[in-house]
Design a protein that fits this description.
Elements: H1 6-12, H2 37-40, H3 42-53, E1 58-62, E2 71-77, E3 80-86, E4 92-96, E5 111-113, E6 116-118, E7 125-127, E8 132-134, E9 154-160, E10 163-167, H4 175-179, H5 181-187, E11 195-204, H6 208-215, H7 221-224, E12 249-252, E13 258-262, H8 281-287, H9 302-313, E14 333-338, E15 342-347, E16 350-358, E17 366-374, E18 384-386, E19 389-391, E20 400-402, H10 411-426, H11 442-459
Parallel strand pairs: 11-20
Antiparallel strand pairs: 1-10, 2-3, 2-5, 3-4, 4-9, 6-7, 7-8, 9-10, 11-17, 12-13, 13-14, 14-15, 15-16, 16-17, 18-19
């Protein structure tokens, strides 16, 4: 396997990289064969739990879904349930969702509001700051009244981009240090003001790494997400994005995260044989006050024209953050993978949230989330464009949780999900000798190298 940095190869070959963000450091990879046991073994899953999931920053809740003191959210990560609570002073604290009396979980719902958390078993009452406020028969404890002594077990908690991040390791680095260059990349968008418009969760019949491997490479895009139509379209997907690896920038940060940037707002993938701009790019151009008819036969010009239009008209329509973005960020597809389990496609007006959480008992399953966030400025009137189509800006979004195959996760994700189960079964085959990776799959190798590094560090 060639383990050199792919973006560095592009620069050496004289190809133009599609953005002017600072370069991420070049990484030297050892290479990884991705043996099948990594996806099936309970023993390996336990090593991951002890040395990765309990040591890294994990994205869980959303700040705007708990605006008032006493509002709470609960999310599960593997065998743990984490309770996030808005405090009286406005801060957010996170706790393990377990009563310190006999181990009963305090809540089982996804979110709610309380004055105190009352354990459903023996009615012990915990204040939202984690202090114990009431127990039955306080004089019947040989060690003394537990009120004023016992506390809920707190979890390290920080917020960024409107999300709540937790780390079960009390001695961890700060979230900003952990995210590294991702922090600066995301800070200019004002994502903390964006609203959720899609929320779908299912239990996928695959190990969590099958999902994350997929989002750490673009090699599958032109096959799994193969478009139909003219030959020129078969090289790219229909959303106006050039998926060729020769024009794609691949970055890997020292902290373990990945970034992939593809040219977007580009007419080549969305034209018919006469050169007429098709959907969805035609609609995107009209939103930018551009006439698709003006670009018949010159689809290569749409990217730059859309950048100029968004820079000119965006702030007047409420998209103030457009002034902080470079030209590439106004059109191109920025895909990030955050170690270990979060992937996001960050568009100028959309945040495609993809997360794979480990199953609490079965290494051959995972909890898979497909959400979409978008800005909702009051000056804008058109519907929000999402992976599920157009959605009204004031739509009330329900979190849909369902068994795999019973509902759609969205066209593109359904295509991925159709591939995953057979790959999971293949990982059990004695005929599988390990992966033979291309350069554009280097971030897959890096993911598994980091997993091994965390396990080795924990065992030593």
């Amino acid at each position: 396997m060639d383990t050199g940095d792919w973006s560095m190869k592009q620069k050496k070959s004289g190809q133009k990289l599609p953005c002017d963000l600072p370069e991420w450091p070049q990484q030297s990879l050892r290479g990884h064969s991705l043996e099948g046991y990594r996806y099936t073994s309970r023993d390996f899953a336990e090593l991951e739990w002890q040395n990765i999931w309990t040591k890294v920053w994990l994205l869980l809740g959303r700040e705007d879904e708990m605006p008032n003191p006493g509002d709470w959210q609960q999310e599960e990560v593997g065998r743990e349930s984490i309770l996030m609570v808005r405090q009286v002073g406005g801060a957010i604290k996170a706790f393990y969702n377990v009563c310190q009396h006999r181990g009963q979980r305090l809540v089982s719902e996804e979110k709610g509001h309380v004055r105190r958390f009352v354990c459903p078993y023996h009615s012990w009452a915990w204040n939202t700051d984690g202090t114990l406020d009431f127990v039955q028969d306080p004089d019947d404890f040989p060690e003394g009244n537990p009120c004023g002594t016992l506390l809920l077990e707190e979890v390290r908690c920080e917020t960024f981009a409107g999300f709540i991040w937790i780390n079960m390791d009390a001695d961890c680095v700060s979230l900003q240090e952990y995210l590294g260059p991702v922090w600066d990349d995301w800070a200019v968008y004002g994502i903390e003001k964006w609203k959720r418009y899609i929320a779908k969760t299912t239990t996928a019949p695959v190990n969590w790494k099958v999902v994350m491997d997929n989002f750490n490479e673009s090699y599958h895009v032109n096959t799994v997400h193969r478009p139909t139509g003219a030959d020129v379209e078969k090289l790219r997907i229909h959303s106006g994005v050039d998926t060729s690896y020769t024009t794609t920038r691949f970055d890997m940060a020292d902290e373990g995260h990945g970034r992939m940037i593809m040219l977007g707002g580009y007419g080549g993938p969305a034209i018919d044989k006469t050169g007429v701009i098709g959907e969805p790019l035609a609609g995107i151009l009209r939103e930018g006050e551009l006439d698709p008819a003006d670009f018949v036969g010159r689809g290569e010009d749409t990217r730059e024209a859309l950048q100029k239009a968004r820079r000119q008209h965006g702030p007047n329509r409420g998209y103030d953050y457009f002034t902080h973005l470079n030209d590439s960020q106004l059109t191109d597809a920025y895909h990030y993978t955050l170690f270990p389990n979060f992937a996001v496609s960050l568009w100028v007006d959309g945040f495609h949230f993809l997360r794979a959480r480990p199953h609490p008992t079965d290494p051959e399953q995972c909890i898979f989330d497909n959400w979409w966030y978008a800005p909702a400025p009051t000056a804008a009137t058109e519907p929000v464009r999402t992976t599920a189509g157009l959605v009204e800006r004031d739509a009330i979004v329900k979190h849909e949780i369902f068994e795999p195959g019973t509902q759609s996760m969205g066209l593109t994700i359904d295509q991925d999900m159709a591939i995953f189960p057979a790959q999971q079964m293949g990982m059990r085959s004695q005929g599988y000798r390990g992966a033979y990776l291309s350069g554009q799959e280097s971030r897959v190798s890096r993911l598994h190298e980091l997993i091994d590094d965390y396990i080795e560090a924990g065992q030593s």
